[in-house]
Amino acid sequence: MKIVNVDKSKARKLAAELNGLLADYMVFYQNVRGLHWNIKGKKFFELHAQFETLYNYLITKADEVAERVLTLQEVPLHTFEDYLSASSIKSRKNLTGGEEAVRAVLEDLLALLQRQRELLLLANETGDEGTAAILSEYVKEQEKMAWMYEAFLND
Predict the structure, then answer these.
(1) pLDDT in tens, 104-121
(2) Could you say which architecture CATH assigns to the domain 8-153?
(3) Domain ranges of the chain
(4) pTM of the model
(5) What b/e string do you get for 4-29 counting C-beta neighbours within 10 Å, with b at 16 or more?
């Protein structure tokens, strides 16, 4: 049964691009998880809590993206190897300082926004209102998040 009324080849292409987004979410999630565990310094308590909130948000979005891939009748990526090869976000390691950690989060968030904006255009061109609505909401939420992280860096 066809759940989403989109041409099969267009749905396949969109799902492949969504898998790239899923990879971005999973790598970003792991990066933030590492920041949460390893952050040090004067802003420890504030950032430790903020990074926990962020990684919970990211894993929820990753799950939603994977489910959208399934809705398009394709298979979501599900191995770390696949995530690392498909992600535009690079794995980060050994960041412990508050400012460098927030800069890394902001950089990764901006990369995520860029991919989602491109995918939003593709979803609209494909006629997939469901995917477009999801991505539009993500962009709105994350633009505000980016603004807040940038404001943190401008104290």
Answers:
(1) 999 999 999 999 999 999
(2) Up-down Bundle (1.20)
(3) 8-153
(4) 0.96
(5) bebeeebbebbbebbbbbbbbbbbbb
